[in-house]
């Protein structure tokens, strides 16, 4: 278990945490949206631009060799971090793009692109795509689009009252017509950790592909994509202490090599004539154009940082943080938390509704005390609608969150309703 001294040492690596907001010490509880960056990540990006900046895979000069080595070293490090092979990790600008690559790639296959190998992904009338009611819009809207383009039916697994998936009708909803089961590993709103094994088992029983949104699990939990047995997965660098502008698509190698690309151009082809083109195997077939090289270098540094402390240790720290937040909120009157019961495993992302106060007003009161949280629907409108809400306030922690941060947040939250004259 990480000691308080360890957490203080971690906190000192994040320059932005020295800021004050409104005359108060910054308490950053919005890591579910984007995590802050340690100086090791910032310095790695700076060093790349100062010493190694060049286009990758395109030049014979030394800078190009150095840049290419850094580019591919980042791929190897990130792949190892999530339990994948290097050729199973394709760079995207974020997880949203990665999920679109899979959904629209399948739609392209359904339109006849990609040849015989791509026909395994074909969708059409009589087929179904299954998602869940807790999905971030990034893992919902692409599948809505794929269904509209192909004529497949979109279905979803519902939410229970206690913030977990209701799997009582799993075998009915995921049936022999199902070609894709797309689901989040961890809810960005509820913090719920979903039973990946059970969902993958059901998908495999009916021959469906599984697509995992791992944005909220990779930064907070030990993740091994091979052990999880999913076919595709997506995650984003900026939530795991890395830069913005870089994400990753994971796929089993034989599937990536068969999936038609949806973003095409230079650097992803073998031959081109005026009427046709042939594409490289994965991962290059999904990496058209100039790549975010410095961002990949920064993500490599973030992975090294997380690995130094160990994801098991960091997950244990965040589990303690989650308990502190959940237990503290439960002690404040007239606040309704949405999420799994306190004794169920979850990450430290806690969403709640303050009776009589709009989430935006809650956020402003907290901000006036130096506390940064998220307000709104968190790109999950169907989830909020399920619980009769239009918006919530979310406090989400990271590796640098301290007990003092939690206590400052809870003390400020207790003042919100009195601030508006409510008792």
TrEMBL record:
Described function: Catalyzes the removal of elemental sulfur and selenium atoms from L-cysteine, L-cystine, L-selenocysteine, and L-selenocystine to produce L-alanine.
Domain Aminotransferase class V: 27-409
EC primary class: transferase
Catalyzed reactions per annotation: (sulfur carrier)-H + L-cysteine = (sulfur carrier)-SH + L-alanine
Pfam assignment, any one: Aminotran_5
Name of the coding gene: sufS
Family of the protein in this entry: Belongs to the class-V pyridoxal-phosphate-dependent aminotransferase family. Csd subfamily.
Record-given protein name: Cysteine desulfurase
Superkingdom in the source lineage: Bacteria
Record bears the keyword Transferase: yes
Entry-linked NCBIfam families: sufS (TIGR01979)
Lineage: Bacteria, Bacillati, Actinomycetota, Actinomycetes, Micrococcales
UniProt entry keywords in alphabetical sequence: Pyridoxal phosphate, Transferase
Required co-factors: pyridoxal 5'-phosphate
E.C. designation(s): 2.8.1.7
Protein's UniProt keywords contain Transferase: yes
């Amino acid at each position: 278990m990480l000691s308080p001294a360890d957490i203080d040492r971690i906190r000192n690596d994040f320059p932005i945490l020295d800021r004050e907001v409104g005359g108060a010490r910054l308490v950053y509880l919005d890591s579910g949206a984007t995590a802050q960056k340690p100086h090791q990540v910032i310095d790695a990006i700076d060093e790349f631009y100062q010493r190694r900046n060049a286009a990758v895979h395109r030049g014979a000069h030394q800078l190009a060799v150095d840049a290419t080595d850094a580019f591919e070293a980042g791929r190897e490090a990130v792949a190892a971090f999530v339990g994948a092979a290097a050729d199973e990790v394709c760079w995207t600008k974020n997880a949203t793009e990665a999920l679109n690559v899979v959904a629209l790639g399948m739609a392209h296959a359904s339109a006849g692109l990609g040849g015989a190998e791509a026909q395994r992904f074909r969708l059409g009338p009589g087929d179904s795509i299954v998602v869940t009611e807790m999905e971030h819009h990034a893992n919902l809207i692409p599948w809505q689009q794929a269904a509209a383009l192909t004529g497949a039916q979109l279905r979803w697994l519902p939410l229970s009252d206690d913030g977990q998936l209701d799997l009582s009708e799993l075998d009915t909803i995921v049936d022999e017509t199902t070609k894709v089961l797309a689901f989040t590993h961890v809810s960005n709103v509820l913090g719920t950790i979903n039973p990946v094994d059970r969902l993958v088992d059901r998908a495999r029983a009916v021959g469906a592909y599984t697509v995992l949104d791992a944005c909220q699990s990779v930064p907070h939990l030990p993740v091994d994509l091979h052990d999880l047995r999913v076919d595709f997965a997506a995650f984003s660098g900026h939530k795991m202490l890395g830069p913005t502008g870089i994400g990753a698509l994971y796929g089993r190698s034989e599937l990536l090599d068969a999936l038609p690309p949806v973003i095409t151009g230079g650097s992803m082809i073998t031959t081109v004539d005026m009427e046709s083109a042939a594409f490289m195997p994965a991962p290059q077939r999904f990496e058209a154009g100039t790549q975010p090289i410095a961002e990949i270098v920064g993500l490599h540094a973030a992975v090294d940082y997380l690995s130094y402390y160990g994801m098991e240790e960091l997950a244990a720290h965040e589990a303690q943080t989650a308990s502190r937040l959940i237990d503290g909120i439960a002690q404040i009157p007239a606040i309704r938390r949405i999420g799994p019961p306190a004794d169920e495993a979850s990450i430290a992302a806690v969403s709640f509704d303050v009776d009589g106060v709009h989430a935006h007003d809650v956020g402003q009161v907290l901000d006036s005390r130096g506390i940064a949280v998220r307000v709104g629907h968190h790109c999950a409108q169907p989830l909020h609608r399920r619980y009769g809400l239009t918006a919530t306030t979310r406090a989400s922690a990271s590796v640098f969150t301290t007990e003092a941060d939690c206590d400052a947040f809870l003390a400020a939250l207790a003042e919100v309703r009195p601030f508006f004259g409510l008792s």
